[in-house]
Specification:
The chain is an alpha+beta fold. It contains 17 helices and 24 strands. Residues 300-321 are annotated as: Disordered.
Length: 729
């Protein structure tokens, strides 16, 4: 059984992902409408974080048991503020979280609720949509009063609401404006104007007492001003067809047959629009959408806008704050500012941050695991070409100590600086003096002798681990890369992960000799191999562990990724080459399911890199059987030709393809809302970061030794492991 803590870790990694955007069919084109109503808004003074919290809380029904509170803030380069407020339960018996994103005026941008509620309801047959009416009239109207403030400009449910047999459901509201200030509900739909990009996406669930909202995402433009609309002067259908460049084409459909276990490819003939532009009804010409429009709202780049009367001046939305909420807000307002952190960086000799660099975006947040507050900054200068510099920085917002620094320079390497010789490397300074200034309790850290040796370069990488009971603890590390010539830091990361339980007492652990005996007596004795050395393959012995180790307390062989005992696979192996392999059980179960991708002559070849072709086939066999959305795997993996199908796949690309194939595309592409907990997270490509965070939150990937190794190619066994964890969860 999974623990409450595991559930908490998964929901934390995916908290922002719960506010996903739901697709729906667009309404038909407006015909015969004359003029849309004009809306004005009133500017207001900036609100304090206390006022923001009071307004947001006043729009919600926070159960009393959600007594713990956390608030964080972020701003973009234009100064637009976004706040994230979290009310939660965190105890040995329960965990729950209510998370809200709000802009600087107190408008709620997104909402999500997670708890341990389990209903006795087993099946719901009612699909009348009464649940939507109830939510619209209660929670949603209270949460977004400005969106339902009048009759001529309001939101209506579009398409058919989804109500699943288990009682969960979803719906999409779109914003409509009636001509000449009429009542939207009484005006014929063909005369309504849809306000493009303004949607409210909701998810809900049936409880023993009715229905409740579980997540919401609002893209309402509070500054919208509607002008006159020109009359229709062209044939709408024919003009739009010409503008959009529609054509007939053959497409290829992929369909998985559960009986045969094969995927068929069927060509179909379709009419497809090349583009879906906005058309002027008077001229038939394209109207260019404002590039400043941001979709979706609810992420740090969004927010801003002026304050409407209904938010800033209407006290009915205010709520009394608890002592804990007031304490959190007070703490937030006393933390170090981005200006103070910048001053520290400019004056620190270790960092090449100059006075011409400015803060482009910032975020202040609290790590609820450790209780510490952090500030993250993106800093850059305005130079172009070789003079351009940018860096990401995180610091302890109470002390100013830098916890992460990553500098990007756009100047090409000119080869003028020669690599250090072995003698110079031995005499070069270490990063210890730098890290002593920034890592709390660094006197308890020690250089990790497994983090790699110094090599002939001016840049030196070092990894230090926290010692617990004299034993290296992989969860707390200090990593640094610096130029040995001037001690300038190019990368530094200090990570601290506190375990949920006490560290095992090493006094009862077996010795290294005893653990080794246990290992070699469990089918992991040394094997004979040929290894290339000095250009010649030489005979040698090695132990092929493949993700297993010894639990030193219980003296048993276990998997690295779950610490569960490794079974004796010799009796159940269905392939000749997976006996004793760490993934043998999963590979065997996959074969029982009928998944035999790439196996020939009784061999699975688990440690060979999987080709793109085999990975695509494996994904389609396993994930389509669960009803996952069909997306172009080839595009995600960068397949452009038949030859590319024979190439191996990197770990980050494999994970990204899986997550998008599972239907998380829109969530994974949201910016600046995800966190991952890998020591080498800076090596993850930006376009893959969201997918890797979701995969870690779902337990699909766990990494090894604190690293994810995103650029390494994925083995056939690892690919099966990823798929196995996905379908098992």
């Amino acid at each position: 059984m999974k623990s409450k803590r595991n559930k908490k870790q998964k929901i934390t990694a995916l908290a922002a992902a719960l506010t996903l955007l739901l697709g729906c069919a667009a309404p038909s084109f407006a015909e015969g409408a004359d003029e849309a109503a004009e809306i004005t808004v009133t500017d207001g003074a900036a609100l304090s974080s206390e006022e923001i919290t009071s307004i947001v809380k006043g729009k919600l029904d926070i159960p009393a048991e959600f007594s713990q509170f956390s608030i964080s803030s972020s701003s973009d380069s234009d100064g637009n503020m976004t706040y994230r407020l979290i009310w939660y339960i965190d105890s040995d018996t329960a965990y729950g979280e209510i998370s809200v994103m709000a802009d600087g005026d107190g408008h709620i941008l997104s909402y999500s609720k997670y708890d341990d509620y389990e209903s006795d309801i087993k099946l719901v047959s009612d699909s009348s949509g009464d649940a939507l009416t109830e939510i619209n009239q209660n929670e949603l109207r209270k949460m977004l009063p400005e969106c339902f403030a009048n009759d001529y400009d309001t939101y209506l449910v579009t398409g058919d609401p989804v109500i699943n047999p288990d009682g969960s459901g979803s719906a999409v509201y779109k914003r409509f404006v009636a001509p000449e200030g009429g009542d939207v509900s009484e005006t014929g739909s063909k005369y309504l104007y849809t306000v493009w990009g303004n949607t409210i996406n909701v998810r809900y669930r049936k409880t023993d007492d009715g229905y409740e909202l579980t997540s919401m995402n609002s893209n309402h433009d509070y500054d919208a001003v509607f002008g006159e609309n020109t009359p229709d002067s062209v044939d709408i259908n024919e003009s739009y067809k010409a503008l959009s460049g529609g054509r007939l084409q053959y497409d290829l459909l992929y369909k998985y047959d559960e009986i045969t276990g094969k995927t068929t490819k069927t060509p179909v003939l379709r009419f497809v629009l090349k583009d879906t532009p906005f058309m002027d009804p008077a001229t038939g010409e394209e109207i260019t959408e404002d590039s400043s429009v941001i979709y979706p709202a609810g992420v740090p780049e969004a927010g801003g806008g002026t304050t409407s009367n209904s938010t800033a001046e209407d006290s009915s939305h205010r709520a009394e704050l608890s002592e804990e909420e007031l304490a959190e807000i007070t703490k937030l307002n006393t933390l170090m500012t981005s200006e103070e952190i910048m001053e520290e960086l400019i004056n620190a000799p270790e960092f090449d941050v100059t006075s011409d660099m400015t803060v482009r975006s910032e975020r202040i947040y609290k790590n609820t695991e450790t209780g510490k507050y952090y500030i993250s900054l993106n800093i850059a200068n305005d130079a172009e070409g070789d003079e351009r510099k940018t860096c990401n920085v995180s610091a302890n917002a109470e002390t100013g100590l830098i916890t992460m620094f990553n500098m990007y320079s756009y100047a090409p390497y000119n080869g003028e600086t020669e690599a250090l010789t072995d003698e110079e490397l031995e005499e070069a300074p270490s990063g210890q003096a730098i890290l002593e200034k920034y890592a709390d309790g660094f006197e308890n850290y020690a250089l990790d002798d497994r983090s790699g040796e110094r090599r002939g370069s001016t840049y030196i990488n070092e990894t230090y681990r926290l010692l617990v009971n004299g034993i290296p603890y992989m969860g707390s590390s200090a990593n640094i890369e610096f130029n040995a010539n001037n001690n300038k830091v190019s990368y530094m990361s200090i990570s601290e992960t506190e375990p949920d339980t006490e560290f095992p007492d090493p006094s009862g652990a077996v010795s290294a000799d005893e653990a080794y005996k246990t290992l070699i007596n469990s089918s992991y004795s040394p094997i004979r191999v040929f290894v290339k050395s000095d250009g010649v393959y030489k005979k040698a012995y090695t132990i092929d562990l493949n993700g297993v180790c010894v639990d030193a307390v219980n003296n048993v062989v276990v998997n690295e990724w779950d610490n569960e005992p490794v079974s004796d696979f010799r009796l159940t192996s269905q392939y000749e080459d997976i006996e004793g392999h760490w993934a043998a059980d999963m590979i065997n179960q996959f074969k029982n399911f009928g998944y035999t991708v790439g196996s020939k002559d009784g061999l699975f070849k688990p440690d060979e890199y999987i080709t793109a072709e085999d990975f695509i086939e494996l994904a389609r066999q396993t994930m389509m059987a669960l009803g996952s959305d069909s997306v172009p795997l080839e595009e995600t993996l960068g397949i452009e030709s038949e030859a590319d199908l024979a190439l191996p796949v990197t770990r980050e690309k494999a994970v990204t393809a899986m997550i998008k194939y599972a239907g998380f595309t829109k969530i994974a592409e949201l910016k600046d809302i995800f966190l991952v907990h890998f020591d080498d997270e800076d090596e993850i490509s930006p376009e893959c970061f969201g997918s890797c965070a979701i995969a870690q939150g779902l337990g699909i990937v766990n990494g090894s030794g604190g690293n994810f190794e995103p650029q390494r190619h994925v083995t056939r066994a690892e690919a099966v492991s990823m798929m196995y964890r996905y379908i098992s969860d």
